[in-house]
Design brief:
Layout lengths: L3 E5 L12 H10 L5 E5 L1 H4 L2 H6 L7 E4 L2 E4 L1 H11 L8 H31 L6 H23 L11 H10 L13 H10 L2 H19 L1
Helix pairs in contact: 1-4, 1-7, 1-9, 5-6, 5-7, 7-8
Bound molecules: S-(P-nitrobenzyl)glutathione.
């Protein structure tokens, strides 16, 4: 049986693969699990049927038989634990890969999202131009630390894992900001993730949703 995930009917990112169905799609592709997608509008996301699956009225969700999950990180971790390909066999290496998933979502992503949200909702406020460099510096600090740890390695713990999948998915939100490029090993790392065939299949699948929607 194929699992079903939910994704935006009309993604505000216009097919750039920045919404959080993307890491879930990517993980499904990495582990070779075919899946179905149920597209939901913003209003459908807020209705009771969807809130039963996702109490916060968001995408993505994941349904597989009698298992229903929300939270992209939990879904990716579940897939990585159930299938080969996203976590090493060695118990310590596995723990380190999971640690990087948490680092991506808990340490790297928050300043990125804070900067993004401020640009969306505070742009016209008098304090925005003062606050902007502070928010950018918080992102820079994290990128600097990540860059130093990554060094010349291809992946965070030498072999590609769910930790890299989550980290690359998070870093992609900075595309176009110029911040990634301040540390050349970081955009190179993101590009390595994007060059994976599984990433490309996932990206094309979400882009097809946008393309179909924009031609109707
Ligand atoms: N912690 C949850 C998870 O990881 O699953 C967060 C889920 C979440 O933020 N979902 C967003 C959502 O459903 C979509 S991905 N938002 C609708 C709502 O809250 O009403 C976040 C997102 C949205 C848009 C862009 N973009 O346009 O670039 C990027 C990321």
């Amino acid at each position: 049986m194929r699992p079903t995930i939910t994704a935006f009917k009309n993604s505000p990112d216009r097919g750039k693969g920045l919404a959080r169905d993307m890491p879930v799609r990517w993980a499904l592709e990495e582990v070779g699990r075919p899946y179905d997608v149920r597209l939901v509008s913003f209003s459908e996301m807020k209705q009771a049927a969807h809130r039963t699956l996702q109490p916060f009225g968001q995408i993505p969700t994941y349904e597989d038989g009698d298992l229903a999950l929300f939270e992209s990180g939990a879904i990716v971790l579940h897939l990585a634990q159930r299938h080969q390909g996203l976590l090493p066999d060695d118990a310590n290496a596995r723990a380190r890969a999971i640690m990087w998933m948490f680092a991506a979502l808990g340490t790297i992503e928050p300043p990125i999202v804070e900067r993004e949200i401020a640009a969306l909702v505070e742009r016209d406020e008098t304090w925005y131009e003062q606050r902007r460099p502070i928010l950018e510096q918080r992102v820079r600090d994290r990128l600097n630390q990540l860059s130093r740890r990554l060094g010349d390695d291809d992946w965070l713990e030498h072999e590609f894992s769910a930790g890299d999948l989550m980290m690359v998915a998070v870093l992609r939100r900075l595309k176009g900001s110029g911040l990634l490029e301040e540390h050349p090993n970081v955009p190179a790392y993101v590009a390595r993730g994007e060059a994976r065939p599984a990433f490309k299949r996932a990206f094309d699948a979400q882009l097809a949703v946008f393309t179909a929607g924009s031609t109707i």
